[in-house]
Amino acid sequence: MAKLSVNINKIATLRNSRGGNNPDLVKVALDCERFGAEGITVHPRPDERHIRYQDVFDLKAVIATEFNIEGNCREQKFIDLVLANKPAQVTLVPDAQGQLTSNHGWDTLKHRDYLREMVALFKKEGIRVSIFVDPVEEMITAAADTGTDRIELYTEAYATEYAQDKAKAVAPYVEAAKRAQELGLGINAGHDLDLHNLSYFAAQVPALLEVSIGHALISDALYLGLENTVQMYLRQLKN
Length: 239
Ligand SMILES: CC(=O)[C@@H](O)[C@H](O)COP(=O)(O)O
Ligand SMILES: NCC(=O)COP(=O)(O)O
What we know:
Its EC number is 2.6.99.2. The chain has helices at 9-16, 25-34, 53-62, 76-85, 112-124, 137-145, 156-161, 166-182, 198-204, 215-237; strands spanning 3-7, 39-42, 66-71, 89-92, 128-133, 150-154, 186-190, 208-213.
């Protein structure tokens, strides 16, 4: 069964909107672990609009499951942060500065030499490396040439097309995973996976090791916890 790594970026977004420590990011990470999550994912961005660099140190000190740090290794600050914390896994994502969210995988052909250098740097420190890629055969093949341990398949296209034709939506991911398997690469996946599209993806894509899920999971936590919470507030007003 693929592991679930919970991406807690959105908890930090909410916390930062008031400047205090509510919700408490570290507590949420520990709660996710207590409830069965097998990993915690964060994606610190250069503007620190959600995960702050200090959060990474605070999380690393306490979490017991797999810590996965995602980000763009073109930022020296990101490289230093990862090397200082030595997470179980670093996922290299080619986002531009100020980008709203991740929207494409690496061009592993164009950036093969650079990625090879980055992969070696992190692996030397005992950190597993995963490269974020679109489900395109040449990109998977060139990713293997970098020496990376794993790839993370960027699943936004699957999530968007799922409602219309799920078999067609998943087909490129199945092919990409087969190619990755042939090349000896581990397979992760993420972006816009949710309660509707996840089980089909996990059933169809061979050798899936890990999914990282944030936006939908945190949104669902609000929906599913809202009834209890409203009732608790109402109880406070009764006397
Ligand atoms: C790498 C990836 O797939 C993203 O989903 C990312 O981790 C989310 O980042 P934001 O929370 O900033 O949208
Ligand atoms: N790597 C993908 C991730 O961490 C979470 O993506 P999303 O569920 O927030 O779209």
